[in-house]
Specification:
This protein is α/β, with parallel strands linked by helices. It folds into two domains: 2-30 and 250-267; 36-244, Rossmann fold (3-Layer(aba) Sandwich). It has helices spanning 2-27, 71-86, 110-118, 136-140, 170-173, 211-221, 231-244, 250-267, and strands at residues 39-45, 53-56, 68-70, 90-96, 100-107, 148-153, 176-182, 199-200, 203-204, 224-228. The strands form three sheets. A six-stranded mixed beta sheet has the order 5-4-1-6-7-10, with helices on both faces. The protein has a two-stranded antiparallel ribbon with strand order 2-3. The chain has a two-stranded antiparallel sheet with strand order 8-9. A hairpin with a 3-residue loop joins strand 4 (90-96) and strand 5. The longest helix has 26 residues, at 2-27. The radius of gyration is 23 Å and the shape is elongated. It starts with a helix and ends with a helix.
Length: 268
């Protein structure tokens, strides 16, 4: 008798649990696919220091580049791989240095978007420095709700230059934000858009990734910080970003609901 009572209670608990999960799946945002979920914005630093080649590559890598590649080339490869994994979505691109502009408005045409990415270079904007405040006008005037915003920079700037980026603006507040720092502490030589190495007092300039600055800026942005310094590390970072932003599609939710209903029928 006690055994039968125990199994009856167990079945009731399992039934209640399964029904609760079904309710959550059907009525929570987990099962709702909206246009907002598809809005993904990349924000890329185009200061001259992004031309520094200190990202270690390897022979046989998918880009077919040996030795070291520039921080900007690494940024473009990061975008390419993320788009390949996330697939169909609305992608946009903002570029900035001492000024900022929305280089590619949100588009569902991933082929066109990637064509624009291929052509991105540090000569697109004047100045060559890094001013995070230049993004203020972009975000304060942007009423779009983004699901994800990915900032890519070598953090070669004063952390104070990001203080006017107000996370409370709609476009920043509603998104999951990631800051991908590209570069190494060893550093590399920044070049002008024409390839000439930049100098100061007749000596080649060396710029390195500043972890402290990157940490400060990521906190201002309320973004999760990652650092890419080599190809293997790049793959790991992309994997973490993709997995951390994983959500269930509508079809997956439907499948889970069906499985749970089958479980309920078996319990009964």
């Amino acid at each position: 008798m006690k055994k039968n009572t125990y199994f009856t209670i167990l079945r009731i608990v399992a039934l209640i649990g399964a029904l609760a999960v079904i309710v959550l799946l059907l009525f929570s945002s987990l099962g709702q696919k909206t246009a907002y979920d598809n809005n993904i914005l990349f924000v890329v630093d185009l200061s001259y220091s992004m031309n520094a080649k200190d990202i270690t590559s390897v022979e046989g890598w998918r880009s077919k580049v040996e030795g070291k590649i520039s921080r900007l080339d690494a940024a473009k490869e990061i975008i390419k791989q993320i788009v390949e994994v996330w697939g169909e979505a609305n992608y946009g691109l903002v570029i900035f240095s001492q000024s900022a502009t929305q280089y590619v408005p949100l588009t569902a045409d991933t082929w066109t978007f990637m064509d624009y990415i291929k052509d991105v270079n540090t000569g697109l904007l004047p100045g060559g420095g890094t001013d995070w405040n230049s993004l203020q006008k972009i975000f304060s005037g942007d009423k779009t709700s983004y699901a994800k915003i990915i900032f890519i920079s070598d953090a070669e700037a004063l952390a104070s230059s990001a203080k006017y980026l107000v996370p409370g603006t709609k476009s920043l507040a509603t998104a999951k934000k990631y800051f991908i720092g590209v570069g190494t502490e060893e550093g590399g030589n920044p070049t002008l858009p024409n390839g000439t190495i930049m100098k100061m007092n007749w000596k080649n300039i060396i710029t390195s990734f500043d972890v402290q600055t990157a940490t400060t800026i990521s906190k201002v942005l309320n973004a999760k910080l990652f650092q890419v310094e080599n190809v293997n590390n790049m793959d790991s970072v992309i994997g973490q970003i993709v997995s951390s932003s994983r959500t269930f599609s509508h079809s997956e939710v439907q499948l889970l609901v069906v499985v749970l209903w089958v479980f309920i029928l078996l319990v009964l």
